[in-house]
Amino acid sequence: TLEGLSRIGTASMNTLPAMNIGKQTGSIQAGKTVQTAAPRIVAPRNIQARQQVSCNVATGPRPQLATFKKGAVSVDLRDEGSETSGGFTSTNPESRRVKPNDVGGRVLVKVVYVVLEAQYQSAVSGAVNAINKSNKKVCFEVVGYLLEELRDAKNFEAFKKDVAVSNIFIGSLIFIEELAEKIVEGVTPCRDSLDACLVFPSMPAVMKLNKLGTFSMAQLGQSKSLIGDFIKSARKNNDNFEEGLLKLVRTLPKILKFLPSDKAQDARIFVQSLQYWLGGSQENVQNLLLSVAEAYVPALKGSNFATEEPTLPPDVGIWHPLAPCMYEDIKEYLNWYDTRRDMKFAPDAPVIGLVMQRSHLVTGDEGHYSGVVAGMEARGAKVIPVFAGALDFSSPVKKYFYDPMGSGKTSVDCVVSLTGFALVGGPARQDAPKAITALKELDVPYMVSLPLVFQTTEEWLESDLGVHPVQVALQVALPELDGGIEPIVFAGRDSNTGKSHSLPDRISSLCGRAINWAKLRKKANAQKKLAVTVFSFPPDKGNVGTAAYLNVFGSIHKVLRDLQKQGYDVGPLPSNSDQLIQSVLTSKDAKFNSSDLNVAYRMKVDEYQRLCEYSEALEENWGKPPGNLNSNGQELLIYGKQFGNVFIGVQPTFGYEGDPMRLLFSRSASPHHGFAAYYTYVEKVFKADAVLHFGTHGSLEFMPGKQVGMSGGCFPDSLIGSIPNLYYYAANNPSEATIAKRRSYANTISYLTPPAENAGLYKGLKELQELISSYQGMRESGRAEQICLTIVETARSCNLDKDCNLPADEAAAKALNMEERDMVVGGVYRKLMEIESRLLPCGLHIIGVMPSAEEAVATLVNIAEIDRPDQQPTAIKGLPGIMARSIGRDMEQIYRDANRGVLADVELLQSITEACRDCVGEFVKDRTGLDGRIGQSLLTTLSKWTGFYEDPLQRALRGTKFSTASRADLLDTFKYIEFCLEQIVKENEVGALIHALEGKYVEPGPGGDPIRNPLVLPTGKNIHALDPQSIPTQAALKSALIVVDRLIERQRREAGGKYPETIALVLWGTDNIKTYGESLAQVMMMVGIKPVPDALGRVNKLEVMSLEELGRPRIDVVVNCSGVFRDLFVNQMLLLDRAVKMAAELDEPDEMNFVRKHAKEQAKEMGLASLREAAVRIFSNSSGSYSSNVNLAVENSSWSDEAQLQEMYLKRKSFAFNSDRPGVGGEERRDIFEASMKTVDVTFQNLDSSEISLTDVSHYFDSDPTKLVASLRADGAMPAAYIADTTTANAQVRTLGETVRLDARTKLLNPKWYEGMMGSGYEGVREIQKRLTNTMGWSATSGQVDNWVYDEANSTFIEDPDMAKRLMDANPNSFRKLVATFLEANGRGYWDAKPEQLEKLRQLYTDVEDKIEGVE
Asked: Is residue 350 within 8 Å of residue 268, measured between CB atoms?
């Protein structure tokens, strides 16, 4: 079955110089009189050894590889002498140059070809060698370039020289804009002198280069021509360009054959040439070269070469390496397959559907496909390998993967696409809805594996990035939109032959995983074993079962009950979640690393070393097993508890959280032995059929390894082994979910965040609201002055003095006139409304328990706020705008005036907000049954029956100033709101899990903020991100400009009119997915460079905005990208780098271009060769590492002082991403990082979702460089720190201090929030403690937390004896951590506590210690 692998040929590489002969009419030579360099001499290699290497490229420690009898053979799969230039590939186009041994008086035709992938190399070389060997009239010299090679300056120069002396140019699948531009630049000057120029499906600008006699596409879509009209209509209708062109190819020759004109003849030859090319075989390529040369090379006119018509294999069909032919009928294939004598299959053998590209089959480049077929069959699986000629692979899927007898049943148990492409569409476009429809109907797991396209095998193995970013965008991100999972690299590429070859350990992994997915369809539920994995982070007592927004044990209990109903053996299940906690942890306040946790299994060291093939690789970091983590010193301990066929296990943590020295390493350490033992137990001892990682998120997917395209040496790949991985992930976190999908092969299932509520007002804030209400009624009376004084005094007691512009003292307050009083009261009122209306998730979500209709109201109000001009089929207008227009006002103006504290507009904004809430509330009430769920409202039914029914919108607005609001606009908006309501309350979270465990397809859906993008709902979907090349969108650019203008304006107000010279900002993966690239666009707007989409809508071009258009100087930036952003958006990072360098190279005065100013200074100070090198500004972690580890140090109290935290940040975050060396990934450039940070005036981050704010997660302070900048600046000045809040339609730019205070008031100190958390008991206490720890993190990195925040928190949770008792009883260990954090904040100087407060804390610490130790 590996016969395809033996076809690796070597190109004939003769080095005799070609005869340089003129191209005059009548001459028998067709060469050009330009001297060319002789190609390098390449020594022939041992062919047999090469074939063996092709079959045995090791990519990691699993499995053991066959060895050669006469010692190991090491073959470098790159060209000899190639040097890395920082590009993605260093292959040499000279390996694709084929020349005749002897021209011998024949016409020499020179051909240059450029292709996206290398599969044509072998066929072209073979065709040329065959012609050169046998043809008496003509011989060819051909050289081929892979598109990616043209990024290299030397290669591009060589390409231009080759085109200048060639007769024929051929290009195909040129769909990368910046490289397409290079093709146009290289070919255009020579186009007129070329005899023929053939460009097959590519970007329109490249297609215009086509030239065959009178046939041209130079006026593509403009001139009246059959092909021109077709292309015009295809682009207009947004059809799949290539698919349409191939349909044209099938029909056009028949028509053109009968047309006499030269134009028709030339067009016929073009279409025939395309048919030859698509046919792909050596014979077809031979006929292509001869027919074009005869028709268009002057010296060969009338040669009458005996060419055959194109031989085209079927458009779709079935191929097997051992089959006698390609099959177009599934019955014929199965007849052959089932009568094979070389293989016998079990009656219930799993059937795997394989999807392949026809081009690899017809060009003889199918060795890697043969390897997968052999791998599947060797494991006892049957295969149905189908192919398509175009790039709509849904056609063979529909045709061949169903019962041939017509029952409509699926005949395959799992589908593995080996193309790397989306199911429908290729490098140019995709049609995800069409793909999802086909895959939902088929309803089996859909895996998309990929062959290396732009790199050789060794380049990929040596790369920290892994798979080339362009390939990630085309062949990982796009298939994810179809619901594709597990992007395993199964094939490498040889640089000399261009052929793909199997990577056996990757194919072994792919086959094992596909068959295990297929087995889920075969196995009875009662026999299936499920390993539920929970997390414990930070590794302290009371933290087992951590996950964002999730009541983990309540959810597990609900899921297991539902699985029990489906026939799963869950053993004697505890009756409630509290008992479940007790049974998994011997005591529910178990310490992660203590014997308090239930030990499910004790693994002997020799058993661990025998079962875990990669255990030796961990010894460099952790020494010999068992080590001291998850170990008793003799054995490795697996923590958890088994219930029937379900094991609930506790995933070990990274292991270095508490070690300050390890936290300082710039690269992350390998997993420790305890971590490896856990997954070894799950796969090899417990023998799980699937693992279910429970909640956002664990450590597995963040272990060291490549960013995308794991090798066997990458730890996420080694750890997960062959177990199907299901992962419950928060719907609002698509970026980290995508990391889990790509690095740990997770099939993610989204869960909802808790229903949101408005924060409301409490205590003194509520009193303030009442005072303001009194003032509004008496503002013109004599009591107004006294009420204003009380408002000012109460605002001070509520610590609002830093957030509002209050008079300095009583005398100043009494001196105010009415207009000034209105401004003071308006400012306080605006701040109160900001606090009151802030959305916050209350409590924790339980999987499968969806919000009631009433609980959805606050979320729906926020959905209804937003204008959605792009909504199809009808644009949706936001409710506030509809209300404002009904009274003749503009909503944006109301926002602006209210933000300034204009009392009348603050009041109006509040009236609009209340009217919107009333409308949504009445609308939902109208559709709510007695149980609070969507249903028939008894009151609505009764009122309709009696004739007293009133429309809910009229009911809500009756008697208000907005009663004349546009009825048509309201109906459109509420039609959309009704759809959103149905999605919010729809339950499929457990259903999707059950579906996946039955070996079925989990429908994909976007992740993100359900308010911005309600298509995130309903949950229970396989989360995907977005096409990384689609951002930033034009809408994001518009929003970004508003925020950047407000940020700069705010800073200028604070700095006496001076512009900030440098802004340090953070880019987050999830934020950019939710906002379609707003923060990415903000960087562009700061430097004044505009991103522009290419002809296919992909954002990869840049335009300079003039200083006149900007109206201000270009601001320098230092961009810190999160590790997740780096993994998902490497292309966009390189685009940012290009933008910054473009700004630096503009010839503008220093005072108008701070990028240039600083780059010049740094180049001089650091002795750098160029401005470009000095203008490196895009930084992140090293590949495979995440975060600065500042968060880990703070959470585990494992840091000595702030200087140590700053050193962690500098060591781990100073890896530069350079568009001039894109293949290198992150290069450590601490020198430039520090030099750039020294110029920073402003630090800046974005908040884009109401669900996640500054103290909800540790990521935000982990990436905050505020104090770090002060330590680096020569003047030691603290930079200004700002946060942009785009969570509502009224975008705000606040200082970091304002945002921390707002966060504290709406969450940590808000009874509505903490009582909601206390409702979740054990897990709720942990959430409260986490908020306080994160607040202290902000003290450590920015110093922007006011003393009163700690005072109020202490008063709420410690000094209230009833509250302290509730916290201690529910989760004593999290309570102990809470008490310890207060003491630590005081000890580090962040909280100036009174002696009595500290005494109370110390006493409580002793009490909780006694409780934990069992001392009464």
From this structure: no
- Secondary structure of 1328-1390 in HEC code, one letter for each residue: HHHHHHHHHHHHHHHCCCCHHHHHHHHHHHCCCHHHHHHHHHHCHHHHHHHHHHHHHHHHCCC
SS (H, E, C) 293-321: HHHHCHHHCCCCCCCCCCCCCCCEEECCC
The alpha helices in 1105-1244, defined as continuous H runs, are 1107-1110, 1123-1128, 1130-1144, 1154-1166, 1171-1174, 1190-1195, 1202-1212, 1230-1237
CB 719 within 8 A of CB 683: no
| Sheet arrangement for strand 450-451 | 450-451, 489-493, 500-502
Measure Cα distances from 905 to 66, 889, 902 in Å: 78, 11, 6
Asked if the bond preceding 1032 is cis, omega within 30° of 0, the reply is yes
Residue-wise pLDDT tens digits, 632-687: 899 999 999 999 999 999 999 887 766 766 676 767 778 999 999 999 999 999 99
- The residue assigned the tokens 């009430």 is 925
Q: Looking at the predicted structure, is the pLDDT value of residue 450 above 60?
A: yes
- 3 state SS of 11: coil
Give one DSSP letter per residue of 1249-1297, joined into a string.
-TT--TTTSSHHHHT--HHHHHHHSTT-PPPEEEEEE-SSSS-EEEEHH
Place of tokens 């706020």: 865
* 1355 burial via Cβ count (<10 Å: 0-12, 13-18, 19+): middle
Q: What does the alpha-carbon distance between residue 200 and residue 114 come to, in Å, rounded to a whole number?
A: 11
Contact 397, 438 (CB under 8 A): yes
Distance CA 871, CA 979 (A): 13
Which residues, other chains included, contact 1107 with Cβ-Cβ below 8 Å and sequence gap of 6+?
1088, 1113, 1114, 1148, 1152
Place of tokens 């975008």: 1291
Estimate to the nearest angstrom the gap between the alpha carbon of 652 and the chain centroid.
26
Q: Which two tokens stand for residue 1290?
A: 């009224």
| CA separation for the pair 552, 1320 (Å, rounded) | 10
| Residue recorded with tokens 């859909």 | 446
Longest dimension (CA), the chain: 113
Residue 101 Cα to chain centre, angstroms: 51
Bridge partner list, 837: none
If one counts every other C-beta atom within 10 angstroms of the C-beta of residue 37, the result is: 9
* Helix spans in 986-1094 (H): 989-997, 1034-1054, 1069-1074, 1078-1087
What is the C-alpha to C-alpha distance for residues 595 and 587, in angstroms, rounded to an integer?
10
Say if CB 1098 and CB 180 are below 8 A apart: no
Residues 480, 483, 488, 489, CA torsion sign: negative
How far does the chain reach from its first CA to its final CA, in angstroms? 73
Helices 1130-1144/1078-1087 angle, 10° precision = 10
Structural tokens at position 347: 């009656």
> Which CA distances in Å does 834 have to 609, 795, 882, 901, 1175?
59, 14, 21, 12, 40
In Å, what is the CA distance from 275 to each residue of 163, 200, 255, 312, 533? 24, 10, 15, 7, 54
pLDDT for 1022 equals 96
pLDDT in tens, 259-283: 556 667 888 888 889 989 988 899 9
965 in helix, strand or coil? Answer: coil
The residue-averaged pLDDT of 616-633 equals 91
Whole-model pTM? 0.85
**334 near 400, Cβ under 8 Å?**
no
Which contiguous run of DSSP H or E holds residue 342? none
What's the token pair of residue 1096?
Answer: 């296919």
* CA atoms of 1197 and 110, how far apart (whole Å): 70
Contacts of 565 by beta carbon, 8 Å cutoff, 6+ apart: none
| pLDDT given at position 168 | 96
